[in-house]
Amino acid sequence: MSDLKQRPFYYDERVLSVAGGLLCALLFHAPYLLVHKTYQNGTAGFLVIFQLIFVFLGLFTTLPLLLSGLSNGLKSLLIGSGVALGIIFLFNPSLLGLNFLLYYIGPVFILVQRGLLSRNVNKDQLEWYPSGLLLANLIAYGIGLIILQSYLTDWTHETAQLQLQFTEQAKKLPSDQQLYYNQMSSMMLSFFPGIMAVSITGLQILLALFAQKILEHKNLNLRPMPRFIDISLPWWLWIALAFCGIGVVAFYESTIGLIAKNVILLLIFAFFLEGLSIIHAFSRKIKNGNFKLRIFYLFVIVFGWLIIIVALLAIFEPWLQLRQRFSKLKG
Length: 331
Prior knowledge:
This protein is 76% helix and 3% strand. It is mainly alpha-helical and 331 residues long. It has a domain at 1-116. It has a two-stranded antiparallel ribbon. Helix 1 runs antiparallel to helix 3 and helix 3 packs across helix 9. The mean pLDDT is 84. This is DUF2232 domain-containing protein.
């Protein structure tokens, strides 16, 4: 792991923090600027190409903050986040800055602050914050975002209005496609807060792992890479799932029912990740486990319904004890 005293000047905490904040603001703001230019000047080919490139690069918006935070600590992250937030508010003093704070800085803060927590097991060994609890913290934050988005935007009313617009657009389609279009648009709208929460959580997890991999390669990491097979979720997620199921049944058409449906979607994502960790543990105990694991992932991509099966493995893990059973197998 990293030795802060032996780093060259460009690895200085302040340099990395400010540079990370500047790059983060650029990656966040560039797609919006290009979209604005495209609407002003028309859809010129080169503008569309640049727009697509910057939209792709926008997926890596928080990577600079994660790199500085995971290599220098929470203080570095806060400095970089402050720089990025200040630039975004300076050039666009609107809800865009609030969105950046909630959907970008919030999850990154949890990943860095929780991820760098440790305690001494003995004189020569540190125990790092468990990956399952770290994931649970992100899920709790995502639940908060779902509730906030559902209430602040009056999503029940907004969904009804948007569905009317989609229904009008569907009338332009052939009659045999209108029903399918309306059903798909209705489902997507009702699950939009949950889809957003899952997308944000999943993306930030991937970026954090990518950042950690880069830092390990450069020997700049403060903590070792978390092991995927160690994911073990806390009990409150099962209780939340049960309450949300009751909420969907009792308040299906209300805002509470909408929130419950979307929280269930986010919880399924969390259980899916734990289910994958169980499958990873099993793959270590069988012959050609890595090859079979790749085949399994291919099947998950092709047959999306397998996500539910994997999530169910984690949901019933407290009773099935699959991880414990697999640990007794001879690898």
